[in-house]
Amino acid sequence: MERPLLVLALFGLPACGGASTQPAVYALIEDAIEEQVEQAAAARPTEQEVEAAQELRRQLGLPLAGGPEAPEVPASPEAPETPDTSEPPQPSADCPSGMARIPAGSFMMGSEDGEPDERRVHEVPVQRFCMDLTEVTVDAYGACVNAGSCTKPDAGADCNWGESWGADRPVNCVDWNQAIAYCAWAEKRLPTEEEWEYAARGTDGRKYPWGKEEPAGQLCWEGVGNDLGRDNPYSTCPVGRYAAGRSPFGLFDMAGNVWEWTASWYSEDYGKSGVTANRVSRGGGRGQLASDVRAAIRWGHEPTYRSHALGFRCAR
């Protein structure tokens, strides 16, 4: 809507009453101009209206709004949002290619609904670390063997080593010492049991790496919904095949495919009554029941134990 500059009519006021009346008249004009400028500012006046008001001030010898030579001040850009400094941002170079960056945090470890060795549920803090996106493959492990830093896994009887189709499948039939040797050769290490479960579950207490939905086609297993049908076992599956089963941090196969060695000693109560000579494995492998592939499930094996159902991934 057009807003008329009413004070322009004051140009027609006669200088009646002599010089003594002019200051009073100018005072009225100045008051009217101030009121109009305030109203115009509140109504977001057009450039033409502002210029007209300024011109009137010039003609009457009044100070210009904003000072006699006030330059136009450009609008200040919006201040950027304050970054979240609770966890310093880290460049992707912190983790080598093929690894995910797992931020520091805490989570509730264990399950009151699972096996006795998963109790009691307790809060665990975890420092920032990196973890392999997938289980170590036959091809990757073979590079360590060729370098002379790793010994060969077992072959045959559902072991992937030496099979023509096994290159992109998890290396299995390796014991804990072989897993340790490979991770050291790759300048990594085995994850602790706490790190493993945190990477699988995140902080929201989910039952499975992908959430609370019951397992079906999210993983390589022998249960309902797998590609071959219930109780029709895979040997294993190529790693990273089941995107729908990724953990909160984007890790593949944290349920199904093979169990995974960790660095931790096993105990039946998270160490409260002492540890055994066994090492913890996690992940559930390619079980047949939903309870077999929960993120909290755990097992203990002697460090020299080898199985077609057991492999590993590394952390850093």
Describe this structure in words.
This protein is of the alpha+beta class. It folds into 2 domains: 16-60; 94-316, paralog of FGE (formylglycine-generating enzyme) (Alpha-Beta Complex), CATH 3.90.1580.10. The chain has helices at 22-42, 47-60, 138-146, 176-185, 193-201, and strands spanning 99-102, 105-109, 122-126, 129-132, 259-265, 279-282, 298-301, 310-311. The strands form 3 sheets. The protein has a 4-stranded mixed beta sheet with strand order 7-6-5-8. The longest helix is centred in the first third of the chain and has 21 residues, at 22-42. The chain is globular. It starts with 21 loop residues before the first helix and ends in a 5-residue tail after the last strand.
